[in-house]
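Researcher: I'd like a candidate sequence for this fold, 334 residues long. If you have to choose between options at a position, lean toward the conservative one.
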């Protein structure tokens, strides 16, 4: 589109000067206004034209058709009815003209409306003439109303079939994208998903046409890697998620069930006697102190008995005999 200086941007109907076309004049790709890319009549004048015609005719569609005829814009009854039913801050004519910027209607003019009706070269038309002329019906696919959010996501320039196909692929990829929802996508991931869907459609069409798809497949693989959607990446992510969400006790049980600890070899069983030492001198001693009679207490008593020294008792013997038994017989020189 060509942006001209402020002095040249004036409405051709009311003569009001504007600093630029954008924002004040509707965008148009019609062959008549292709040089500037805008309808040369400002939005306010277009609304005034519509309202004026509406007071002179019986239906809003007739008023809109007359505006389109004056501005050489394509007119479609079904598209206009859709705009008429929508509740929006824009006027009905502004909403309708914005619909004409999609690829389906971008290069059409009022001539195409007349061609569809078969009246392009009928300069004197009456009801009988119209009734005798075959009416060329528009393609039903062209009348599909594309939601605003779909247009915002994919941008202008596609036909209705392409929008529907792209949206179908987006929903598929959104269902496969891990840990994300459509509302939660960051702008980078959103751009990658958009390119993936476009590439998939291009690859399928090139394959059907017998064209080479190697470069497109390579580009698709790179995009899958950027979105962490390659099979190897996905398996790794899934494994990390399983490890992160599984408690340690569950992992220990799984390990014991699948690979239990084998029995210790006899020559390696309690080599330093630490088990026996703890059982006797810690558990056994503790049980003895607390008055608990069990195996540990018995082991402790048996081990103490080995180390215990009992004082000898003598019957009917004098102190000298006891002394000699302890220190030996002095007379023997011991």
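Model: Candidate sequence:
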């Amino acid at each position: 589109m060509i942006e001209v200086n402020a002095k040249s941007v004036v409405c051709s109907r009311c003569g009001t000067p504007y600093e630029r076309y954008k924002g004040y004049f509707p965008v148009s790709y019609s062959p008549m206004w292709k040089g500037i890319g805008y309808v040369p009549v400002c939005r306010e004048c277009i609304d005034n034209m519509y309202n004026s015609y509406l007071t002179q005719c019986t239906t809003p569609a007739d008023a809109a058709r007359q505006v389109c005829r004056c501005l050489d814009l394509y007119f479609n009854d079904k598209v206009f009815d859709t705009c008429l039913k929508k509740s929006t801050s824009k006027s009905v004519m502004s909403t309708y003209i914005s619909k004409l910027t999609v690829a389906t209607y971008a290069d059409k003019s009022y001539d195409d409306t007349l061609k569809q009706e078969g009246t392009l070269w009928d300069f004197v038309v009456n009801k009988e003439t119209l009734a005798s002329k075959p009416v060329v019906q528009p393609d039903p696919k062209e009348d599909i109303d594309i939601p605003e959010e779909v247009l915002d996501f994919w941008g202008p320039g596609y036909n209705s079939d392409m929008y529907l196909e792209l949206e179908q692929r987006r929903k598929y990829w959104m269902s496969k994208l891990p840990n994300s929802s459509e509302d939660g996508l960051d702008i980078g991931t959103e751009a990658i998903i958009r390119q993936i869907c476009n590439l998939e459609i291009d690859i399928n069409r090139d394959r059907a046409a017998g064209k080479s798809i190697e470069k497109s497949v390579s580009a698709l693989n790179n995009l899958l890697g950027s979105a962490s959607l390659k099979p190897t990446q996905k398996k790794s992510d899934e494994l990390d998620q399983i490890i992160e969400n599984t408690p340690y006790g569950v992992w220990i049980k799984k390990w014991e069930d699948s690979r239990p600890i084998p029995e210790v070899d006899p020559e390696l069983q309690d080599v330093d006697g630490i088990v026996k030492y703890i059982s006797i001198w810690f558990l056994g001693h503790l049980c003895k102190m607390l008055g608990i009679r069990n195996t540990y207490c018995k082991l402790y008593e048996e081990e103490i008995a080995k180390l215990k020294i009992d004082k000898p008792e003598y019957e009917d013997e004098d102190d000298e005999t006891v002394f000699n038994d302890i220190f030996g017989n002095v007379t023997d020189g011991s």
